[in-house]
Amino acid sequence: MTKPFVYITRKISDDVVKDLEEHFEVEMWEQEEEVVPRDLLLRKANQADAILSMLTDQIDEELLSQSPNLKVVANMAVGYDNIDVNAAKRHQVVVTNTPDVLTDTTADLTFALLMATARRLPEAIDYIKDDLWKTWSPYMLAGSDLHHKTLGIVGLGSIGQAVAKRATGFDMNVIYHNRSRKEDVERQLGVQYASFDELLQQSDYVVCMTPLTEETEGMFDQETFRRMKDTAIFINTSRGGVVNEDDLYQALKQGDIKAAGLDVFQDEPIGADHPLISLNEVVALPHIGSSSIETRTEMMELAARNIKKVLNGESPVTPV
Ligand code: DGY
């Protein structure tokens, strides 16, 4: 009997590949820095029983309808907006993601970006590299405090909660907005619920942690930025599609808000010529929220575990 075929869409850890090879026939797109070409992905999907996918792969009706043996798509990310989940359901393909293992790592990065933006760390680092440091001066590279300020978290899922936990350690006042109120978390972390409008008006820092869905697409637009304080700093480590980038650019240019720290963009990767990069008020990172060696390895392992479970006829560990 031939072994089930697993296609991996990017170069991942040898150990994870070896583990899968003990059970299945495995092929991998061997590039680390390059997305698998669409036509090759379609060809491989057509033969595959399982795909270990990245957030850069579009798993849509076109692919799913041409993949008669496909049983599981294991996305190596907590977000799965690259997958048409309804189409997968129609084609009886199980979709899994990698929640929990990346929660603390992504919260750490969110907090690092918050601090880097508030305290202008990239500018300060360049200040020395560009040989501009000539003396101490009272307001040299003066940033904004975090402590005792109000942090507004939009989307209090597990990563949002982990950010809130870090913020309370910094003596911040934490408010949140979420589809549903989370009274147990309010009690546990000492955070307070606010309407979206109240959050925008009261927050010194607005942190976007909501997944990209039809409802959240473009929710941070001209209107939302106008309702924030003009001293507010906006942070996004969820998905770029939640933000209207033209509106964010204008909001920063016009001084509707003070600064933005962004780990994610509408169309990734962006180049150095992206308009937001031209602004001193923007701290930009190349989507590295979950990027620690430990966590990325755990994400690969979890995706592989999900594939093994489904191909063995068991329930996956983390279905979406
Ligand atoms: C995720 O898992 O969705 C992250 O964005 C990947 O870093």
From TrEMBL:
Nucleotide-binding in keyword set: no
Keyword check for Mitochondrion: no
Span of domain D-isomer specific 2-hydroxyacid dehydrogenase catalytic: 6-320
Residue span, D-isomer specific 2-hydroxyacid dehydrogenase NAD-binding domain: 111-289
Family annotation (Gene3D superfamilies): NAD(P)-binding Rossmann-like Domain
Keywords: Oxidoreductase
Name of protein: Glyoxylate reductase
Taxonomic lineage from the root: Bacteria, Bacillati, Bacillota, Bacilli, Bacillales
